[in-house]
Amino acid sequence: MEKDKNIKRPDEDHLLSFLQKTKEGKYAKIEQSSLSFVRFREKSELIKPAPEESFYYSVS
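Predicted structure:
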């Protein structure tokens, strides 16, 4: 099943509007050095713990 890239989510429009206004300088100045960083979406997976799982603690 292919996703249609033309379908926009409601919060996507708000995010794009915010980014455009920020780029225009309406919120705060963007440092040129920060433009080289790449942003990734976070993904997490739940893992069932084993019943005999042990926890170890230490103090440094």
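Summary: The radius of gyration is 21 Å.
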